[in-house]
Amino acid sequence: MTVSHRPTILLTGATGYIASHTWLALQAAGFAVVGVDDFSNSSPVVLDRLAELSGQTPVFERADVGDAPAMKAILDRHRIDAVVHFAAFKAVGESTLRPLAYYRNNVGGLLSVCQAMLDHDCRRMVFSSSATVYGDPARLPIREDFPLAATNPYGQTKLIGEALLRDLGIADPQWQTACLRYFNPVGAHASGRIGEDPRGTPNNLMPYVAQVAIGRRPRLSVFGRDWPTPDGTGVRDYIHVVDLAEGHVAALRRLLDERGSFTLNLGTGRGHSVLEVVRAYAAASGREVPVEFVPRRSGDIAACWADPTLAQTMLGWRARHDLARMCADSWRWQTLNPNGFVGS
Ligand SMILES: NC(=O)c1ccc[n+]([C@@H]2O[C@H](COP(=O)([O-])OP(=O)(O)OC[C@H]3O[C@@H](n4cnc5c(N)ncnc54)[C@H](O)[C@@H]3O)[C@@H](O)[C@H]2O)c1
C-alpha cells in the first residue's frame, strides 16, 4: 500500500514524556497525528502545551489501549497509516513487585492495538523497546545482534513485544515494524514547556538530579562507587529526548517507504558516568548537587552504551545534542515547572 495523502500517525501513550516530544517532531515533519492516552502516567495539561507549541489543536482520544472495543472505535474514526506504540508502564523496580500489571498493560495493550490495526488493514508499527533487552552485555558498545536477556518483568514485556511483532511479520509480510531500543532518554523540549514529569520519587537519574538541584530533595544517592568504570560509578548512554523523537520520524519515513521491518538502537554511542552527569548538571544549573555513596543495587549493571551505526546507516539519523545541552534543557524545564504539569 502506497501512502499518497498526508500520513496520519496514531501515537499511543501520546501525552507521555517521549511521545509528547515525538508528537511535535512528527507535526514539524508534516505528519498528521492522533494521540491516545489514559493519563495513567501523564497529565492532560500536556495537550494544552502541545497546542501552544504547535499552533494546532491536538486530535486526542482518551482511552486505555488494552480496551479492545475502544481501540477499534478509534481506528474506525480515524484513517491511520501507522502506529507508534509508546503506551506502557516503565518502572523496572515496580515491575518486579507488580508483574501481572506489567504483563497486562505492556503485552495486553500491544495485543489489543495490533488486533485493531489488523482489523483496519493498518500494518505498520514503531514499537518502543529498550536497551534493557540486552541484560548485562558481555561487550561494549552494544550492537543489535548481541544476545538478549531480560532480567526483570519490564524487560520481559519488551522482549515479548519484539517477538510478537516478529511473528506477525513472519505470518504476513505486509506487517512492517520497527523495534527501537532506546538507551537513556533525558532532557526536555527547548521551550521548557514539555518535559519529563515523574510521579513520586523519580526512577531515573536526571530527573532525580534535577529535583536535588532545585532543592526538592536533599541529595542524590549514588548506588556503588566500585563499578569497573573510570570513576567507579555506573555509565549509561544518555540521549536527548528531542533526538529520540527525530529517530521516530526517520523510522516512520522508512516504514512508510515499505522497505521492510527493522530493529535499531537509538543511543548516542557515548557513555557518561553518574558523577559526570552530576557535574554537568551542576554546571548547567549553577546549583550544587550533593551526593552520598550507598551500596550497589542488585540487578544494576556497570556500563551500557549503544553502537548507533545501524540507525545512522539505515535511517540517516544520529543524535546531535551533547550532555551539556541535555542538562541545560532539563534544567529549563525544571525551573519553569518546579512541580511538573500538576503545579501549572
Ligand atoms: N523513559 C525511558 O527511560 C525509556 C527507556 C526505554 C524505553 N522506554 C519506553 O518508551 C515508552 C514511553 O516511555 P516514557 O518515558 O515516555 O513513559 P511515560 O510514562 O512518560 O509515557 C507512557 C504514556 O503511556 C500512557 N499509558 C500507559 N498505559 C496506558 C494504557 N494502557 N492506555 C493508554 N495509555 C497508557 C501513560 O499515561 C503515559 O502517558 C514506554 O513504552 C517505555 O517503556 C522508555
Structure overview:
By secondary structure, the protein is an alpha/beta fold. The chain is 40% helix and 17% strand. The chain is built from eleven helices and 14 strands. The protein has helices spanning 17-28, 45-54, 68-77, 92-97, 99-119, 153-171, 205-213, 241-256, 274-285, 309-315, 323-336, and strands spanning 8-12, 32-37, 59-62, 82-85, 124-130, 176-182, 184-186, 220-223, 235-236, 238-240, 262-266, 272-273, 291-294, 303-304. Strands 3-2-1-4-5-6-11 form a seven-stranded parallel sheet, sandwiched between helices. Helix 2 (45-54) links the parallel strand 2 and strand 3. Helix 9 (274-285) crosses helix 11 (323-336). The N and C termini lie far apart (44 Å). The model has no long low-confidence stretch (mean pLDDT 96). It binds nicotinamide-adenine-dinucleotide. Nicotinamide-adenine-dinucleotide binds next to helix 1, helix 5, strand 5 and strand 7.
In a nutshell, what does this entry contain?
This protein is α/β, with parallel strands linked by helices and 344 residues long. The chain has eleven helices and 14 strands.
- Sheet-strand content, in percent, reads 15-25%
Bound ligands, named by name, code or SMILES: nicotinamide-adenine-dinucleotide
Largest sheet, spatial ordering of strands: 3-2-1-4-5-6-11
Radius of gyration: 19 Å
Quantity of strands, as a count: 14
Largest sheet: 7 strands, parallel
Order of helices and strands: EHEHEHEHHEHEEHEEEHEEHEEHH
Put simply, the count of helices is 11
| Mean pLDDT over all positions | 96
Taken from the alpha-carbon principal axes, the silhouette is globular
| N/C terminus separation | 44 Å
In helices, the fraction of residues equals 25-40%
> Which residues sit in consecutive blocks of at least 5 with pLDDT less than 50?
none
